[in-house]
């Protein structure tokens, strides 16, 4: 008889900037929609390719300087999108 208890499995995702593996709930999801638009996905269920960012506003400068979003999604990222990210990280 197997007496091991089943562990509850929290979804783990990797932060794009730090590379840390963290619970999905502690990260902000950024998604590239099938139409090619970058969006912030607070629900985590938007259709499209996603990347995760630790909810830490201090990482925004590193994200911007390294152009990780442009590299990850192969799209140009506007200054307006970084402002939206900044607001979302403050919430």
Describe the protein in words.
With 91 residues, the protein is α+β, with helices and mostly antiparallel strands. It has one domain: 2-Layer Sandwich (Hypothetical Cytosolic Protein, Chain: A), CATH 3.30.1230.10. 27% of the residues lie in helices and 24% in strands. The protein contains 3 helices and 5 strands. The strands form 2 sheets. The protein has a 3-stranded antiparallel β-sheet. A two-stranded antiparallel ribbon has the order 1-2. The protein is globular. The protein starts with 11 loop residues before the first strand and ends with a helix.
Number of domains: 1
Helix/sheet category: alpha+beta
**CATH level-4 homologous superfamily:** YlxR-like
Shape: globular
Query: Roughly how much helix do the residues carry, as a percent range?
Result: 25-40%
- What is the CATH topology assignment? Hypothetical Cytosolic Protein, Chain: A
Query: How many helices?
Result: 3
Let me know the largest β-sheet.
Answer: 3 strands, antiparallel
Assembly form of the protein: single chain
Q: What's the count of strands?
A: 5
CATH architecture: 2-Layer Sandwich
Q: What do the pLDDT scores average to?
A: 92
CATH level 1 class label = Alpha Beta
What's the gyration radius in Å?
A: 15 Å
Q: What order do the SSEs take from the amino end to the carboxyl end, as H and E?
A: EEEEEHHH
Strand order of the largest sheet: 4-3-5
Strand fraction band?
15-25%
Q: Could you tell me how far the N terminus lies from the C terminus, measured between alpha carbons in angstroms?
A: 48 Å
Could you name the ranges where pLDDT drops below 50 across 5 or more consecutive residues? Answer: none
């Amino acid at each position: 008889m197997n007496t091991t208890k089943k562990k509850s499995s929290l979804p783990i995702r990797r932060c794009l900037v730090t590379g840390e593996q963290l619970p999905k709930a502690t990260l902000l999801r950024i998604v590239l929609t099938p139409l090619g638009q970058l969006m912030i996905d607070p629900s985590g269920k938007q259709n499209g390719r996603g990347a995760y960012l630790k909810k830490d506003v201090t990482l925004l400068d590193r994200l911007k300087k390294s152009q990780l979003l442009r590299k990850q999604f192969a799209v140009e990222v506007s200054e307006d999108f970084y402002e939206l990210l900044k607001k979302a990280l403050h919430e």
